[in-house]
Design a protein that fits this description.
This protein is of the alpha+beta class and about 250 residues long. It is built from 9 helices and 5 strands, in the order ααααβαββββαααα. α2 runs antiparallel to α7. It binds FE2/S2 (inorganic) cluster. The site of FE2/S2 (inorganic) cluster has 11 residues, from α5.
Length: about 250
Amino acid sequence: MSIESQTYDELVEISQRYPEKRSGLLPMLHLVQSASGQVTAEGIKACAEILEISEAEVSGVATFYTMYKRRPVGDYHVGVCTNTLCAVMGGDLIFERLKDHLDVGNDETADGRPGDSATISLEHIECNAACDYAPVMMVNWEFLDNQTPESAVSVVDDLRAGKPVHSTRGPKLVTWKEAERVLAGFNDGLADEGPSAGPASLVGLKIARENSWTAPASNAAGTATAVADTKQAAVEQADTSRAESETLAEES
Ligand code: FES
């Protein structure tokens, strides 16, 4: 399958976002996955051509990171965290239950059944840095917190039936191809859907407030109320402000 001209143009567009165009390789590979469902030989060739590097170099990156798939995944790729904390909190049980329910092994796609609206693939994944919500699973890289074997089965059944499912800390789940386009840096307008941080992640902030603890002044970021003078500082300040306002909303 060849790369469509619109996809090729968008790959070029991504490469032009960076002073060193090869820095665009990771989002470019996500765009290839968005267009083709997986990293294809044609996608690797296009990336190499645009970035003026070898196909072996592109392939080396695509095979190093597990988020890049060399064979098709389902419309919804379900990752169950089986790292230590999630495992002892039930992640292993969830993974086993889903393997049985979907009749698949690790990194496999379940057969579509007559009447299904979507296909599901399953993978066990390492720590998602969401241990405060263990056991956690992800669907197309959106979090589903505090899962149980029963809730996990319900999620995949709803997805197969075409029912809307919402991430616990994000937007309504979108398909693999749609999610991959966002990872390539194309905004789907859903970034502000759902809470950005849940109560468990904000406990430290709450305790600090109750005890009037403050962070030491930093030359780089200035005080919490300082006007950010760099783009990065503005992003960090905006994230903090949003988390703090959500804490206030919860407290009121
Ligand atoms: S161990 Fe599962 S999110 Fe950290």
